[in-house]
Amino acid sequence: MKEKIKKIEAGIQEDLRTLSDSIYDHPELGNQEYFAAKAHQDLLKKHGFQVEEKFLGLDTAFKASFSTGRPGPRLCYMAEYDALPGIGHGCGHNMLGAASTGGAIVLRYLMEEGLGGDLVLLGTPAEESDGGKVTMVEEGIFKDLDLAIMAHPDCHYRPSGNSLALKALAYEFFGKPAHAGASPHEGINALDALVLFYNGVSVLRQQILSTARIHGVIRDGGKAANVIPDYSRGDFYIRAQSKAYVQELEQKLENIAKGAALATGCSFNIFPYEFANDNMVTNETLNQIFVEGVGVFSEDPICPAKDAMGSMDCGNVSHEIPAIHGYFPIADHEIPGHTEAFRDATRTDYAYKHLDEIVCILAYTGWRVLEDPDLLKKIQEEYQENLKKGKIIPYKKED
Ligand SMILES: [Zn+2]
Ligand SMILES: [Zn+2]
Questions:
Q1: Is the pLDDT of residue 127 over 80?
Q2: CA 145 to ligand 2 centroid distance, Å
Q3: Which ligand sits closest to the CA of 336?
Q4: How far does the centroid of ligand 2 lie from the alpha carbon of residue 86, in Å?
Q5: Ligand 2: distance of its center to the CA of 129 in Å?
Q6: Which of 48, 64, 146, 159 fits a disulfide with 44 by CB distance 3.0 to 4.6 angstroms?
Q7: Ligand 1: distance of its center to the CA of 186 in Å?
Q8: What is the pLDDT of residue 167?
C-alpha cells in the first residue's frame, strides 16, 4: 500500500506544488479567497470530484465530493487557504490547502479499488478571522460525515493536540440620559453599570482556574462628560481549556451583568461580537493512525503534541465529529508562525518534500479507516465517551 500511495502522489505532486505556489503568489484575506478557492476546485474537478461552489452561501467556501456508490464511512478533509493582512501566507495556508486537497485526491484513487464510502473535501475560508468552519458547524453539515482530518504546517511532525475555547461577548447597558449638572437625579447611568460590571469581572478573576483568561475593553462609555451616559458597551474575551468551562464563566459574567444592571437601574444585553472557537478535542484513536502514517512515509521523528495557547475553528468541528489537526514540517529549524520567514519556508525544497509526505500520510490515515471497519467503531466509541464525560459539547442553536 505504501508504494501504491506514493505512486499516485507522484502523479499529482507537480500540480500540488503549483497549487501551493500560485496561492502563495495570490494571498487573499478571509472570505476573499476567490483565486485560491477556484484553484483548489479546478484541481479537484480534474480528478473527478463533484464541486459545489459558494457552499452555504459563503463566496469562497466549497464542497468537493467523491462517492464510490458503495456503503461505507464518510470521510472529510478540510482545506484552508486564507492569508494574513500585511504578510500574506505567514501561517502557511497555501501549503495547508494543497496538503488536504492532495490527500483527498490520492485517497479517491485508492477508494476506486473496491472500497466503500464517500469522500468530501471542504474548502473552509477565513480560518484567521471569521472561521468558515464555525458556519459549517452551525449549519449542521458535519452531521452527515464520520470524521474530519487536516494537518497544519509547522517545524516538526506533531500529532494533533489541543487548542483553547474562546468566546467573544459584548455587554451593553441601557440607561436614561440627563443633564449631568442640572438634573443628574433624572438619569440612569449606563457607564456606572459597565464600570460595576468591569470591576465584578476583575474580582471574579481571583477565583477562576489559572488556565482561563477573561479580558475586555470599554468600547463605548458615553459621549460627553456633561451628559449622563444612556448607553455603554464593553467587549470581552473568555478563554479556557474546555468549552464547558467557558460556558460556566459565561454564566458567571451574565450574573455580574445582572447585578450591575440591578444596582444602577439599567437594562442590559449580551451578544457575541465575533465567532466563538471551541477547544480542540483530538480523537486519539484517529490521531494514532496519523502518527502511524508519519512512521510509514517519513524518516523524520514525530515530536510531542503542542499545548496550544491559541484558538482555531477546527476545534468547533471536533465537538461535532471525531477530528484531528496534525502538523507537518516546512522547515528544519524553528520559525515562529505568522511571520514572513514562515511564509517563505513554504517555497523551499524541504517544504515540497514534506508536502509530498503529508499528502501520503493524510491519504493513508483515511485509507486505514476505510479498510478496517473496527477502527471507525473505536473512533466513534471514543467520541461517545468524550460526549458522556462532557469533554465534547456539540453545537446547539442557542449557543
Ligand atoms: Zn494562523
Ligand atoms: Zn494557520
A1: yes
A2: 23
A3: 1
A4: 15
A5: 11
A6: 64
A7: 50
A8: 96
What is the rounded CA–CA span in Å between residue 8 and residue 102?
10
C-alpha of residue 291 to centroid of ligand 2, in Å: 20
What b/e string do you get for 370-391 counting C-beta neighbours within 10 Å, with b at 16 or more? beeeebbebbbebbeebeeeeb
Closest ligand to C-alpha of residue 153 is: 2
DSSP H helical segments within the chain, as ranges? 2-25, 34-46, 93-111, 132-138, 190-204, 243-264, 284-297, 314-318, 340-345, 349-371, 373-389
pLDDT in tens, 223-279: 999 999 999 999 999 999 999 999 999 999 999 999 999 999 999 999 999 999 999
Write out pLDDT tens, residues 350-385.
999 999 999 999 999 999 999 999 999 999 999 999
3-class DSSP state for residue 251? helix
pLDDT digits (tens, 9 = 90+) for 63-75: 999 999 999 999 9
Q: Say how many Å lie between the CA of residue 93 and the centre of ligand 1.
A: 8
Which residues 6+ apart lie within 8 Å of 4 measured at CB?
Answer: 110
Bridge pairing between strands 147-154 and 74-79: parallel
Element (H, E) at 231: strand 231-240
3-class DSSP assignment, residue 178? coil
| Residue bearing cell 464593553 | 234
Residue 386 CA, ligand 1 centroid: distance in Å: 27
CA atoms within 13 A on the CB side of 163: 22
Q: At what angle do helices 349-371 and 93-111 cross, to 10 degrees?
A: 40
